[in-house]
Write a structure and sequence with these properties.
38% helix, 17% strand, 2 domains, 8 helices
Length: 247
């Protein structure tokens, strides 16, 4: 039979070990769990650097490729209605989503080097705070890079094109040319531009499938767009695609 002293010693040891474990769990930083806007019915403030988990995209629809092609148009007038997080998820996946275990994406890329980056300007999306976000294809999530509604600023940088301000969201395509030119030299710049066209057409067709409308904007002041979007130095903006419901 264990003596009283031994029992008290064991209890004391357990208390000390538990206290140490609790202390370490507090001191060691933990990466916050991504916010799930599906579970967050009310708008939740997202801090810069926080991530938003996007819902899984759908892989089928009632709209055929042929129908989407026949209905695809460039539309600049929007109703002002909000988009859902599911629609945003689908649009971003269509542009650059992962479609194979090896990392293949929805749009072809020369040498599978994937020089494109996608930013999302949120103006009016259910469950997602206004701001600028970077899309991360590998995780299919969004990382906030800037607070606030920048649609009006972006419209000014796009030479006053009102559709950029009026859309519920703006998808901004950028390129990191070095990801492609290290292998293909100057011709790699052409490959990057071709790839941007592939991805933008995917957004057009996906928008049709979702009963949304969009347009590609190529006229803007690069330096202003970079500053507004908090882009990295090596990135070059290529396209702005406002998306909304047809007005």
């Amino acid at each position: 039979m264990p003596t009283k002293a031994i029992i008290l010693g064991v209890i004391a040891t357990l208390v000390v070990v538990t206290a140490i474990a609790i202390t370490f769990s507090v001191l060691i930083p933990h990466e916050p769990e991504p916010v799930d806007p599906i579970k967050t019915k009310n708008m939740q403030k997202i801090e810069v650097g926080e991530r938003i988990k996007l819902p899984e995209p759908s892989y089928t629809s009632n709209v055929s490729v042929e129908e989407a092609l026949s209905k695809r148009r460039s539309i600049r007038a929007y109703s002002g209605e909000s988009l859902t997080v599911e629609e945003v998820s689908q649009l971003l996946w269509a542009a650059q989503g992962i479609t194979s275990p090896g990392g293949g994406r929805t749009a072809p890329s020369a040498g599978a080097l994937y020089p494109l980056e996608l930013y999302l300007v949120v103006g009016d999306v259910e469950g997602i705070d206004k701001g600028v976000y970077r899309y991360r294809p590998e995780e299919h999530d969004l990382e906030k890079v800037k607070d606030g509604d920048v649609r009006a600023e972006l419209a000014e940088a796009a030479l006053g094109q009102e559709c950029v301000k009026d859309a519920a969201i703006d998808i901004v395509f950028t390129a990191v040319y070095e990801r492609t030119t290290w292998k293909y030299g100057e011709r790699g710049i052409r490959y990057v531009h071709i790839e941007a066209g592939h991805a933008a057409q995917n957004v057009y067709l996906q928008a049709v499938s979702l009963d949304l409308v969009t347009v590609v904007i190529g006229a803007f002041i690069d330096s202003e767009v970079k500053e507004i979007m908090n882009m990295q130095e090596q990135e070059t903006p290529l396209y702005i695609m406002p998306v909304g419901r047809k007005g």
